[in-house]
Amino acid sequence: MDPVHIIGAGLAGSEAAWQIARAGVPVVLHEMRPQVETFAHKTGDCAEMVCSNSFRSDDDEMNAVGQLHWEMRAAGGLIMSMADRHRLPAGGALAVDRDAFSAAVTEALRAEPLVKIVPGEIRDLPDSGNWIVATGPLTSDALAGSIRGLTGTEALAFFDAIAPIVHAETIDMSVAWEQSRYDKGETEAEQRAYINCPMTKPEYEAFIDALLAADKTEFREGETAGYFDGCLPIEVMAERGRETLRHGPMKPVGLTNAHNPTEKAYAVVQLRRDNALGTLYNIVGFQTKMKYGAQTEVFRMIPGLQNASFARLGGIHRNSFLNSPTLLDDRMRLRARPNLRFAGQVTGVEGYVESAAMGLLAGRMAAAEAKGADLAPPSGNTAMGALIHHITGGAEAKTFQPMNVNFGLFPPLDEMRGGRKGRKDRYPAYTNRAKDDFRAWLAAQ
Question: Which stretches make up the MnmG N-terminal domain (predicted)?
Fold first, then answer.
């Protein structure tokens, strides 16, 4: 049996390789790192996480992301398995020790007899064979040029911004305190998973002034500042209104200052644990394109971070993605060359979990094709089905933008049409229906 080839060993490519091998089909996983570096990656490991260390909500009853987690676990997903093994306390979220996680994914793939990992850059799209392109937001210039040449269209682009990471020992805990919003979590560790830095109104106003005045990274010629709304740099949010941050990542709700319980903070900056040792914390929602010198100056204005030492400062990079509604069919194949499937963030999904989920689907579809079968996507009632439907036809091609999974992508519930049911009733109905349909999809294979 001829192998399936995958370009890119990120989260999507790694998950695709795992699914293909588990189906009994040989797979060759091509990865250009570390021979060809990117500015964001630090290792040559598979599934390296370059931005946040969070897979977001793990609630599979009330949250669409949590439902996607459930589906990936049900399908024997490698990414979720390793995330569960290396999870960190994070309230209701699934956060992981990023280095241990990617090392474990790499080890699992190397130990799989049907997976062969081949280093080196693939610069051109192959004419024949069964291939999955899972090169992510940092597709190399050469391969991006090949994609543009084949599709006859300019790749769309937005910018992902990377949040800074702080050394925990440099956070002033006489000012900051540990607490998850609304004390969410079943264990004490989860209820204390975040470090909170409070601001008074004058401190917040001074912070906004400094943020707006700070030196920012300039765009290169030919780049456009089309940001994805789910990953806006904080200074862009601040430009939309002085109160925007206070109602976004700096909202003070659900938190009580352990040092002064009777005084309500005007705004709160949260930090989330970034490794198992608890020595690193990332500043939640603080993606930025400020220059490095400006970052240290502005972020040290945050109470509790006045003496902060940064393990990594924020950054910004171009994120290329296909206009998938016009280019891909519902088997994730490129219409112009059906031997090529695309998976992951390059397809126009946003987020680690969404990217890995598209890798899971592409892997299973490619494995089925290698065995002479055809695998249809799961029902649009499922989280995976809702995502693939959105990117391969459900979205408006003229205004297509990257999308996180959310209940807005799910078909309406017949029993709730015309009613005024709230989230408490509606969301479990969505996830229960999704679980039933996903179980049926798995059972039919």
Answer: 4-373
Report pLDDT digits (tens) over 24-46: 999 999 998 766 666 555 667 89
Q: What is the pLDDT of residue 62?
A: 95
Q: Which residue from 352, 353, 354 is spatially nearest to 324, judged by alpha carbons? A: 354
pLDDT of 38 reads: 60
Cβ atoms 134, 346 nearer than 8 A: yes
Residue 24 labeled ligand binder: no
Mean pLDDT of 218-226: 55
What 3-state DSSP class applies to 128? Answer: coil
In whole angstroms, give the CA distance from residue 60 to residue 84: 14
Please tell me the distance from the alpha carbon of residue 267 to that of residue 397, in angstroms, as a whole number.
39
CA 359 centroid distance within chain: 13
Query: For 266-298, how does the pLDDT look when each residue is reduced to its tens digit (9 = 90+)?
Result: 999 999 988 777 888 999 989 888 999 999 999
- Measured between alpha carbons, how far is 280 from 340 in angstroms, rounded to an integer? 40
Determine if residue 10 is labeled as part of a ligand binding site. yes
Q: Which CATH number fits domain 161-318: 3.30.365.10, 1.20.1250.20, 2.60.120.280, 2.40.30.260?
A: 2.40.30.260
- For residue 294, CA distances in Å to 125, 207, 213, 215, 300 come to 41, 12, 9, 6, 10
Say if residue 11 carries a ligand binding annotation. yes
Q: Scan for tokens 């502005």, then name that residue.
A: 298
Q: Residue 218 to residues 222, 298, 316, 424, 443: CA-CA distances in angstroms? A: 12, 18, 10, 45, 52
